[in-house]
Structure formats: structure tokens, C-alpha cells
Specification:
Shape: elongated
Strand content: over 45%
Radius of gyration: 14 Å
Largest sheet: 5 strands, antiparallel
Length: 131
Amino acid sequence: MTLLPATTIAGAVTGSVGPTFPTEDLKDLFVEAAFLYGSGGTTVKAWVQTRVKGGTWRDIMNFAFTTAAATKWSKVSLGIALAAARAASDAALADDTILDGFLGDELRLKYTTTGTYAGATSLTVLGSAKY
């Protein structure tokens, strides 16, 4: 699934969201985030989020980039135990971390950038879902 097609990053963006994907019965999610750096800018942060039955979106992955091209991967699995009564977070999960053990029935990507990027700077986020 394409959580975010190749998207040019220019001026600062706050909380832009991609399309919502139905993912009922999802067991594992593997995600690749590719940041192509051109010039300028400060930070790019992308959160993969999930929710249950139209409830509150919560972060399950974060990818953080600055001023260098990079490709990063993360994987979360439903079969991992979670601490009880975890609080929801929206664009608050720490840089380059995951929240394992939580996969709802919908997914989306949310991203924020700071600074002014140029030179064809872009972000692409792809996911592979296992049911």
C-alpha cells in the first residue's frame, strides 16, 4: 500500500494526512520511508497511525529526517503484548520509534515539516500488510 506517494516537500507543513486504508484483521505491518534530500529545510517527521472503528488516531511508528537523504524501515506486529491502558498519541511518538502490539482496523500517514526545503526534496512512504 502507498501510504504517501512521492511528495515534494517545500514550505513548512503541519499535520498533513494521507488517505485512510482499511486494515481489519491486520497481523503485521512493514513500512519503508524514503526521504530524498535536495537542499534547505530543517526536519521532516512522519507518523504511521491506526485507529479502531472510527475512534482516536494513535501513532504506531515515527520516521524522522533532517538534511540528508535516507531510507528507514519499521515493523509492528499485533501479537506483541502491550502495557495495559496505553494513552492515545497523535503526532507525538518519539523520533524513529514504534508502538508494537497495536494494529487497529484503519491506517493512515501524518507528516509535519519545518523549514523551507528545495531542490526536489521528497518523501515516499510504502507499506506491506500481512493478514
